[in-house]
Design a protein that fits this description.
- By secondary structure, the chain is an all-alpha fold.
- It is built from seven helices and no strands.
- α1 packs antiparallel against α2 and α2 runs antiparallel to α3.
- The longest helix is centred in the first third of the chain and has 16 residues.
Amino acid sequence: LDRAYDRYMKDAKKYLQSFDLNDAELAFRKITAVHPNDGEPLFYLACIASLREEKEEGFSLLKQAVEKGLKGRERILSADQLAYLRIQPEFESLQQNLLPPGIIDK
């Protein structure tokens, strides 16, 4: 199961890196279906939503990712794919609610 997860995650990230957003979304959604309590694919789905400028979806997915234990939350502040969400006025309150000082994993 872990090998399949790793393979699907690798393929999904490859799609995302090549901006094949439809295939990347499908791949990350498959991972989420098999691992519903994993925040990692939700983080990448939020990246896809941000690239598509779908802010409500992006914020919802980021919140779910954090609630499901996303590791390396500082990526929310630095991932290029999330730039669109970070420039939205709502991002400040999301950041305060989800990333209070001291909770960001380093």
